[in-house]
Amino acid sequence: MEKRNYFSGVGHALKSLTIGLKTSIKVFFEHDETEQYPENRKTLHFSDRNRFCLEMIHNERNEHHCVACGLCQMACPNGSIHVYSEMVETPDGKKKRQLVKYEYNLGQCMFCNLCVRACPHDAIRFNQDFENAVFDKSKLIMQLNHPGSHLEEKPKPAPAPRPAAPAQPAAQSAAAPAKPAVAPAKPVAQATEAKADAAQPKAASTASPAQAVKPAAETPSVKPASEAASPASEDINKES
Amino acid sequence: MFDFTTVSTWFHSLLTGVMPEWLAIGIECLIVLLFIIILYATLAIILIYAERKICAFFQCRIGPNRVGKWGVLQVFADVLKMLTKEIIKMRQSDRLLHDMAPYFVLVASFLTFSCIPWNKGLEILDFNVGAFFFISVSGIGVIGILLAGWASHSKYPMIGAMRSGAQLISYELSIGMTMLVVILLNGSMQLSEIVQQQADYGWNIVRGHVPAVLAFLIYLVAGNAECNRGPFDLPEAESELTAGYHTEYSGMHFGFFYLAEYLNLFICGAMAATIFLGGWAPFYIQGADGFNSVMAAIPGFVWFFAKAFFVVFLLMWIRWTFPRLRIDQLLTLEWKYLMPLSMINIVLMALVVCFGLTIN
Questions:
Q1: Residue B223 is assigned to a structural domain of this protein
Q2: Chain A residues with CB-CB distance to B58 below 8 A
Q3: Do A27 and B322 make contact, defined as CB atoms within 8 angstroms?
Q4: Is residue A62 in a domain?
Q5: What is the pTM of this model?
Q6: Which residues constitute the domain of residue A64?
Q7: Peptide bond before B231: cis, by omega within 30 degrees of 0?
Q8: In terms of CA atoms, which chain B residue is nearest residue A20?
Q9: Which among B358, B205, B355, B359 has a CA at the least distance from the CA of B286?
Q10: What is the pLDDT along chain B (360 residues), one digit of tens a residue?
């Protein structure tokens, strides 16, 4: 601290005290910060970065993105996620892993967000529902996939030369590691198909070019994965 | 300006008409006692509520708002809670002194409270050494605090009480000297006379200009210290001493300390209003007769309370702005800064009065 003589010390003190008083009287007339919680439920606003409860993103057709790969379960340091899946055979003879039950234990979750980061399909996210208090511990164990929901069918890109790839940047980046295994022996059309349908790399590699092209022709609208997140699936913990 | 003595003399003659004088005076004393107690309690409730609200606003909060509209019933709930709490008796404490201490503080507070001139002709204790009496009875409070610390037989109350003793005795000097400045200016120690002069010649803070403003500022600092309020709340520094001298008190005994603290705040504000801001004297501007007649229409006690609460607000503003001082800083402030300043101030005021430099 700077050494001051008697009189300049008095002057300095008066100056700094005045600054303090000015600041506090300014605050006095400012808007109060207090949130009156139960009354202001309607207007309560949280930062988007708040993480309160895990939810699975469902669109309005009750479809989610989870392919039951189990990466989130492996990423979870607390073991609060359990993914139950089964192998089913699709009508066209492919074997496919399907989500049965996505179990999430809120009581064990430490909201580290590792599961969300691990998910290759953006199927889960943390939401803003903070009123998670319950009287029974067992109620904290939730099933995140809605009853009757199923995997959103990825629209297949048209077999046309290249332009299909840039339309789905998210899916492309997710499929990147799968690409070299599939691409070399196949024609161009199938390689792009493998990129787009990253969820089923095995199915894509076994399918013949003609089969791969067919569903793409039926669903011409191409949707980015991020857009599929729908408002229909917001109250996830009402389920439990 | 309405003179309250007309009411009191009329009431006195009414009583003496039907009963002997000693009985009449006895009844009047009882009425005055009731008046003091009711006013004391009411002001305490208002002040505690105001403190909590103002403190909240200074901290960007809302303050009490659950009990009653805007939380106005919060204080009543607190009083009820405090009344129903058990008064703890400790084995090691000096029971007699321990139980007596809160009453010392309360009595000091009541006595100073009685000195205040509320309105023209409405004073309870008013005699020719009023200001002197005021200073001396306010010193009784220190005994209460020291007793509380001593009789609790516990280290924190003891430290708090010792700090409090050092602090109150030191700052009493500044209070006394600022009062001397006013007494010099008005040439009287009678509080009603001081106010009357201000009604006639203008408020002391204007009339005495530089030395009076200086004295007012010193009074604010010293007054805050006398009330044991932040930034001078070392005697009860909760982070170091839990609650200081009243750590070992519970229930209504603690309530008395609490009550006295808030009333001392009001008394401090009221005394500043009385000796500097003109007490019940309305605000006059020389020459503006229409304005002056409007001001004169407002009753004196309204003026008095407005000024007193203004000073109380200033004290709260100070309290909720500055961090607490260390004990050495506290004593340095008094003995090295305020004391010399108030001494110079007395000389300055003496010169001003001597050469007739007052603004009339």
A1: yes
A2: 24, 27-28
A3: no
A4: yes
A5: 0.70
A6: 53-153+225-238
A7: yes
A8: B321
A9: B359
A10: 677 778 878 888 888 888 888 888 888 889 888 988 898 888 888 888 888 888 888 888 888 888 878 888 888 888 888 888 887 787 877 788 888 888 888 888 888 888 888 888 778 888 888 888 888 888 888 888 888 888 888 888 888 888 888 888 888 888 888 988 888 888 888 888 888 888 888 788 888 788 888 899 899 888 888 888 878 877 676 677 777 777 878 878 888 888 888 888 898 889 898 888 887 888 777 777 777 777 777 787 888 889 899 999 988 888 888 888 888 888 888 888 889 989 999 998 888 888 887 776
Per-residue CA distances from A111 to A76, A140, B340 (Å): 10, 14, 62
Please check whether residues A116 and A230 belong to one and the same domain: yes
Give the range of the structural domain holding residue B118, as residue numbers without chain letter: 92-354
Q: Do A60 and A102 have their domain in common?
A: yes
Q: Which residue of B has its CA nearest to A17?
A: B322
Whether A6 is in a domain gets the answer no
Amino acid of residue B339: M
B60, A20: Cβ pair inside 8 Å?
no
Measured between beta carbons, the chain A residues lying within 8 angstroms of B65 are 36
Question: Are A180 and A81 found together in one domain?
Answer: no
**Domain count for chain B:** 1
Cα B347 to Cα B360: distance, rounded to the nearest angstrom: 20
Q: What is the DSSP string of B5-50?
A: HHHHHHHHHHHHHHS-HHHHHHHHHHHHHHHHHHHHHHHHHHHHHH
Q: Do A126 and A104 have their domain in common?
A: yes
Looking at the fold, whether A94 and A213 belong to one and the same domain comes out as no
Whether A68 maps to a domain, the answer reads yes
Residues A182 and A147 in one domain: no
A-chain residues near B320 (CB < 8 A): 24
- Using a CB–CB cut-off of 8 Å, the residues of B that contact A are 54, 56-62, 65, 317-318, 320-322, 336-337
Tokens (6 digits) for B349: 């005021």
Neighbours of A176 (CB within 10 A): 11
Is B274 a domain residue? Answer: yes
Q: Measured between beta carbons, which residues in chain A are less than 8 angstroms from residue B315?
A: none
A87 and A148, same domain (yes or no): yes
Do A60 and A173 share a domain, yes or no? no
- Best B314, B321, B330 member to test A by mutation, with max A CBs in 10 Å, is B321
Query: Is ipTM over 0.85?
Result: no
Which helix (H) or strand (E) segment is A125 a member of?
strand A124-127
Number of domains in chain A: 2
The partner residue sitting opposite A32, judged by closest CB among B54, B60, B322, is B60
Nearest to A20 among B62, B321, B337 (CB): B321
